[in-house]
Amino acid sequence: MPELPELEVVRDVLQRRVVGKTITRIELFQPMAALVVRDLTGRGFAETLTGATFDNVTRRGKFLLFAFTRPVSAWLVLNPKLTGRLQLATAQTKRFKKTAVAFTLSDQTELRYYDDKTMGQLYLTDAVERVPDFAGMGPEPFDITREEFRERLKLYRGEIKGVLTRGEFLAGIGNAYADEILWHAQLHPYRKRTQLTADEIDRLYDAIQTTLRESIAQVRAAMGENIHLEPRDFLNVHLRTGEACPRCGTTISEISANQRITNFCRTCQPGGLIRGM
Ligand SMILES: [Zn+2]
Q1: Residue 31 is a catalytic residue
Q2: What is the pTM of this model?
């Protein structure tokens, strides 16, 4: 699932590749498009965006936002959820089977959205606050100070991995990078927030900053312009069940709960509940 590091790199690429370009044609592929596209303006998705020029691309949490001001002011807001991907292509590039929307741009580039499980959403809106799950998001991880982080963490009491992946606590961290952050911080994912010492909370804050920044650099190197890829070869524990921990050599543990996999090293990340180990 795309999280902050992937979306940050995708944003950079799109800022360079689509800003200043005009949408000359929009194709909606059914039945996927009906599940993905949401027109919150009532003015029509293709009708509004055909002829519009990309002004800016930004990221907020796990959302990508495309701003248009010419000839009309509007936002295109993508929430890719688990399986949504953007792709830069040309007309000759074979379409992925689950392509829902293709935007042809004035330089003949095609910006496509495909989604193997059609879980993501592409909103057209006049106000980003109207997009579901957008307004309640917590601060960006790079914008929060250590002191603010300590204070904010006090509002939550559950298992630390569950806290980290809650968008209203911090925006942009999902299952994969929560595992990586906790491995860097050497904290067991099922430790309760209330059990963490001040030193451990400091370690967690530092691990969030360094893990996300280093991951952006790794994703950028591996992705290039292929924004539909999700490079994860560089991860240390996530999806590495049964492999050796890069720090200590212990076999990496896996716990599956609530349809998501948690990976960690039981030597480097001691404590927590003894389950599934
Ligand atoms: Zn280890």
Answers
A1: no
A2: 0.94
